[in-house]
Amino acid sequence: MTPHASLPGLTVVAHPLVRHKVALLRDTATPKKLFAELAEELAMLLAYEATSDLPLERGTVETPLESAPAERLPQEAVTLVPILRAGLGMVPGVLRLVPTARVGHIGLFRDHDSLEPVEYYCKIPTGAERGQVFLLDPMLATGGSAVNAATALKQRGITRLKFLCLVAAPEGVRRFHDAHPDVPILAAALDRELNAHGYILPGLGDAGDRLFGTK
Ligand code: PRP
Ligand code: URA
Q1: Which ligand is in closest contact with the Cα of 205?
Q2: Candidate from 116, 204, 210, 212 with most ligand 2 atoms within 8 A of CB, to mutate
Q3: In a domain, 143, yes or no
Q4: pTM for this one?
Q5: How many domains does the chain have?
Q6: Average pLDDT for consecutive 10-residue bins of the chain (215 residues)?
Q7: Does residue 170 have its Cβ closer than 6 Å to ligand 1?
Q8: Can you give the CATH number for the domain in which 9 is found?
């Protein structure tokens, strides 16, 4: 996992399985069920990388033969915060790796004219600030939603934060890093640019609509 050479803060997870699944995810012929499965699998692969520096507690475990040293994740080690709606599609994949993770939610939608995010919901598990928080959203486009969500989490005392997304635009990466230089971004793909409507090119279209079949 190597940080991007010219976009500070960004790491693109370039594993062959990630690239393969991103290709399937982009395909306009991919049906809703497969799209959701791919989003889940990609989230799991990103989470594997994102959890590589989680602190562990040392203890022991009784094997059938003897006592052995053991390392375990502390309670409340990980909290997931999907940005509604589309971030929900990444939660099951991360939970398969870290089933003890707790889940908060932050509701934001982009105003279609201004493209600026409007917050309508925020509920974060108590104690989240004592562990690692993963902010989840498949799309980092203008960056407005992710910047706003990260700000809201920091206002609740959260300092150990990483942002996991499936497709990022350079514009969004720059805006996010300018606002939150302390928050690493892990992406499955870095795309070319945004179009005039704030959609990522080549992108995958509207992630929420493809996940939930709303269009
Ligand atoms: C999409 C996406 C991000 C946001 C990214 O959500 O899931 O949250 O746009 O765009 P930005 O980087 O320009 O803020 P949308 O606002 O369409 O809401 P939805 O998930 O409810 O469809
Ligand atoms: N939100 C999406 O779902 N897709 C984009 O390309 C940009 C924002």
Answers
A1: 2
A2: 204
A3: yes
A4: 0.96
A5: 1
A6: 89 97 98 98 98 97 98 94 97 97 93 86 96 98 96 96 98 98 98 97 98 94
A7: no
A8: 3.40.50.2020
